[in-house]
Amino acid sequence: MSDATPEPDPYIEHRRLLFGIAYRMLGSVADAEDVLQDAWLTWNSADRAAIRHPKAYLVRTVTNLSLNRLASARATRETYVGPWLPEPLLTSPDAATETELADSVSTAMMVVLETLGPVERAVFLLREVFGYSHAEIAGILDRPEATVRQIAHRAREHVRARRPRFDTDRARREEITERFIAACSGGDLNAVMELLAPDVTAWSDGGGKVTAARRPLHGADHVARWVLGVLAKPQAAGVTLETATVNGETGVLLTAGGVPIGALTFDVADGRLRNLWFQLNPDKLRGLRPGRALS
Question: What is the 8-class DSSP label of residue 282?
Fold first, then answer.
């Protein structure tokens, strides 16, 4: 019997990276997992002997499958009830210590990525997040390198203009999150308002299935009263708010009987919450399971 250790399957070896690409491309845990399943079927039926660079082959496959799925997903989102927000992803607390990783998968960044065209989104992610060269991206997308350079520059400027820098101090963010949870749990309107920036905006995604504001809410008073109003509803009885690492940053996990029913992520600026994103759609909570990992 041979003692030789079998070679690891490249798909299994790179699955974390592949999921990271698909999730950032699609903003959906469910769609990303579907793309990985399709990629596995493609990989499993491929002539392995003809594939010189398995990792490059898999990245190309996942990127292009994501582009195809994104085109159809955008059509569906045009008829979505209320604001469409990306699916939240419960990540390892360690991810929050890596500033670049946390920012690249934060809800704020995912929302900005939605404003890019599909190809721009792919080029930006492959270049700025995963570090691929323009030449490598040209090969993945089957486009001239000069075109990829132009797209990369345009996408980078687009993101930079729409994603200003906010506070990234982890300890400060955790402190503010805990104070916000305490204020909400206690129904303290003034305390909630003190933690919100005067020009705060809140978006909530209920998908037409649960209570959610169908338009963005503006202003500390309006946002605070809406949040406390939702928590005071009879159906909110037994809901618990707790800190959790969501999309690489400290956020709030809402649970009922130990089951996730929503997530809140936000920007922090000058010690206050500036932008809030509530994901409440029950169809978009499968990423709120422990043990997720991202590259």
Answer: G
Q: Which residue has the tokens 């491309």?
A: 25
Query: In the structure encoding, which two tokens stand for residue 60, read together?
Result: 């190309």
Nearest to residue 19, comparing CAs of 62, 76, 70? 62
- DSSP classification of residue 86: P
Q: 208-236 pLDDT, tens per residue?
A: 998 889 999 999 999 999 999 988 875 67
Instruction: Retrieve residue 34's tokens.
Output: 């579907």
Q: What angle do CA 253, 254, 256 make, to 5 degrees?
A: 135
Instruction: Classify residue 160 by burial, with Cβ atoms within 10 Å: 0-12, 13-18, 19+.
Output: exposed
Helix (H, G, I), strand (E, B) or coil at 243: strand
Q: What share of the chain is helix, strand, coil (3-state, %, to 5)?
A: 55, 15, 30
Q: Report pLDDT digits (tens) over 90-138.
A: 987 654 445 555 678 899 999 999 999 999 999 999 999 999 999 999 9
Q: Please, which residues bridge with residue 262 across strands?
A: 254
d(CA 180, CA 195): 7
CB contact at 8 A, 29 and 287:
yes
CA distances (Å), 234 to each of 132, 195, 222, 223, in order?
51, 25, 21, 19
Which domains are assigned to the chain? Answer: 10-162 (1.20.140), 170-284 (3.10.450.50)
- As beta bridge partners, residue 279 has 205, 263
